Amino acid sequence: MSDRQGFDFEHFYFRELHPDIFIGTASDRYLGWVGQIYSEDRYKGRISSRSKKIKGRTFQEDVLPVESVEEYFNHFRILEIDYTFYGFLLTADGEATQNFHVLSRYKSHLKEDDYLLLKVPQSIFAQKILNAGKYIANEDYLNVKAFIERFYEPALTLLGSNLKGFIFEQEYQRRGERISASELARSLDFFFNSIYPDPRYHVELRTESYLTPVVFDVLEKHGVGQVLSHWSWLPPLAKQFAKSGGRFLNAERQCIIRLMTPLGIRYEDAYAQAHPFSKLVEGMLQPEMIEETARIMWAGIEQEVTVNVIVNNRAGGNAPLIAKRIAEAFTTAKPQSGSKTEKNE
């Protein structure tokens, strides 16, 4: 597993599935992927462990060193970096944070055609944040200066051409507490009009009532992509795609599909079922997620859009095996000969 190979989903090589398809995962370095993505013996004695508490239960996560990203990119073309969701790259005083240093180590192992998606800190895009066990209004919500100076500019400087996109994820807003879609659209219009124009922006809204024309029009105005997310309380991917008229909003003709959790399952429960992320969990993977993802991938190709599919372990137990299912469904769902897609290949 040391060299890059052509498409071979039986051995988890997805880089050459299709020129306009990028398959990757949300986070990496999982010990549960040894034998699939990572070599059996390469990291012996260099596995670190950390504890994670979820709903009163403690889980141990065993993590490979950053160097393992080299093997990761033998198999995948893209990787979503999640830890930037929890903190900036620079402090308010301009000093490099721990996230900056870790990301710098990742960069040192990347080749020219390895690409990263960065999650924008929740401090920028969350309407409410958790503080002392309670959700309170986020004073830095849509803070233009903080985004530019403490995240956007250092990310560009650090990653250069390896940076493929920014994901702005907004948490679910409870009924009775949420602002209207029109008010959200106005605030997003102001924000994206105030930051540097960049076709690599993508927005994930986890509140179904915000998936409306007034919001989509603002995203399209600024060339911002709609993230299609298979997540607990959102509708199925096909319905999300239909809500925007089956069109792709991103100015650079990029689309991001994120497969996060089974529909109707909370994060905590999905994590507990999937841990330790070494195999598919019986009954957890929802077949419709795979089928709809494959159809949207082909829809993107038909419209000359590059589709980036990001898979999380929590969507079924083991991200590489889920990616394999997607690759199989994608090849099976290939349009008949003579279609626009066939002619463009």
TrEMBL record:
InterPro entries: DUF72, UPF0759_sf. Transmembrane segments: none annotated. It comes from the Bacteria. This is DUF72 domain-containing protein.
